[in-house]
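A protein record in our archive is deliberately plain, so that people and models can read it alike. The tokens are whole numbers drawn from a learned vocabulary of local backbone shapes. For reference, a complete record is included directly beneath this paragraph.
>
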Amino acid sequence: MGSGTGVEGRRGNEYLWLVVIVRVRMSRIFLVLILGIFFFGVAAQEHKMVKGEFQKILDEKEVIGTILIYDLLEDRFYSNDFSWAEKGRLPASTFKIPNSMVALELGVVQDDSTIFWWDGVERSISNWNQDLVFRDAFHYSCVPCYQDIARKVGKERMRTMLDKINYPGMQFSSETIDNFWLMGTSRISPMQQITFLRRYQAKKIPISSHTYDILDNMMIVESTAEYTLRAKSGWSVDNGHNNGWYVGYVEKEGDVYFFATNIEPMNQEQIDGFVQARIAVTRQALSQLDILPPTSPR
């Protein structure tokens, strides 16, 4: 009896010690998890900086939305509204960036001098009422030119190419192949726009050097000794709802600054100045961060 009780006692003590060790280890793991969550939260906050100044810029232009800027070297986002930056909208003419890639990769257009012959239909934008070479079709945001491209590409090849270049959120059928970026259920967010542009600028999209060279040149809006600005605007009116974009990036002094502005007029019935505001508010925000020179007030 005495010997058995001693063995059971030792086993009981061993069990208690095992429980203590397990609890200590679990406490350490829990502490590590808590600290990890805390530091991850701090890092996330440092990764994103809310800029009240951007909101003032939008308010002055009587528009709502987000100005999103990403500093590559600092690995930091700046915005007045990160919730808006995560929400998808129709890409409108910013889709001319991937659409141009697709056209060049498939040989629908050969280079930036490929001619789009005017069909003789008078449209409200006078620059479209003429024969245009590809680079001018891009700069003038010629919708009929890019609709022609999309029809020649077709539904199946368009889907294959968008999957290949990893451009997200586009929904289309054979019937909507020439307008899905302007109306319907296609969606892309400002964050996704910047992700795509980052891959493009880093030459990580699987397209030819020929396509990169041509598109690099076509996207240039402004180039000086100090910086190069590449960008594309967009404007959709879907069921009477106006939404505008300005996306691109600035290469300056070894750094790259990506931006994606998405805005809407405060009053959808009053859109005076809205079209110009897409670019104006973006440049003001870039100027506030000393990325572009100060803009003159308008």
In short: The longest strand covers residues 227-238. Residues 35-43 have pLDDT under 50 and may be disordered. The chain has two domains: 1-49, 51-288. The first helix runs from residue 2 to 47.
